[in-house]
Amino acid sequence: MSTIRQQIEAVRAEYARLPAGLLAHVERVVAEARDLAARWDLDLDRVELAAWGHDLFRAHPPADQLRLAAEAGLPITETDRLEPVLLHGPIAAVVLRERLGITDDEALAAVRDHTLGAAEMPLIAKVILLADKFEPRKRQRTPVMREIRRLARRDLDAALLCWADWKWVEERTHGWVSHPAHWTARVRWVAEHHADRALPPILPLDDDADPAFGA
Ligand SMILES: [Fe+2]
Ligand SMILES: [Fe+2]
């Protein structure tokens, strides 16, 4: 049974075979995630492990990502087939568990869900997803990420929701589809946000005329 620091070193060593640009991004995410995790009093080593693991398969060619996902027994949707890069987190989570012996379920969930989010996310997963989106290079490219970073220090859930809103606007602006898994997560985040603020639930639209309005 290896220690968490040994696991981090084993994952870090995998990047020797991967592009330097990817390593540089992951190093920025590690630093960003550790900084945010410290503000939320999380275990920094567990967060660092997830940060190192999150993009292990990001640079693999799409055909390899589809093959690796099939070998890992992952479900592959039509959206995944069109955009195999969406599989890089789920593939990494399986490989980290099966090949590198990592058993920290929350760290593995953080790796798996860092691209699209999930309805249920442990704190580590929220930190990794957000750090990945607002590491220095990303917030330089997309200045609104600075605001989301600032918000994440106060309220991780509100920051996630703001990121999802930004993503929604990007997708509609460019005519991209929203991934069903992300949409499911987003709907839950919105519902929880309303519940937190004791707002009444959103009622389904009724096509029939409301008798209260006499028509
Ligand atoms: Fe990624
Ligand atoms: Fe990343």
Automatic annotation (TrEMBL):
NCBIfam families assigned: bis(5'-nucleosyl)-tetraphosphatase (symmetrical) YqeK (TIGR00488)
Protein name: bis(5'-nucleosyl)-tetraphosphatase (symmetrical)
Protein EC: 3.6.1.41
Catalysed reactions, semicolon-separated: P(1),P(4)-bis(5'-adenosyl) tetraphosphate + H2O = 2 ADP + 2 H(+)
Domain HD positions: 23-135
GO molecular function: bis(5'-nucleosyl)-tetraphosphatase (symmetrical) activity; metal ion binding; nucleotide binding
Species of the source: Tepidiforma thermophila (strain KCTC 52669 / CGMCC 1.13589 / G233)
Record-linked InterPro entries: Diverse_Catalytic_Enzymes (IPR051094), HD/PDEase_dom (IPR003607), HD_domain (IPR006674), YqeK (IPR005249)
Assigned keywords, A-Z: Hydrolase, Iron, Metal-binding, Nucleotide-binding
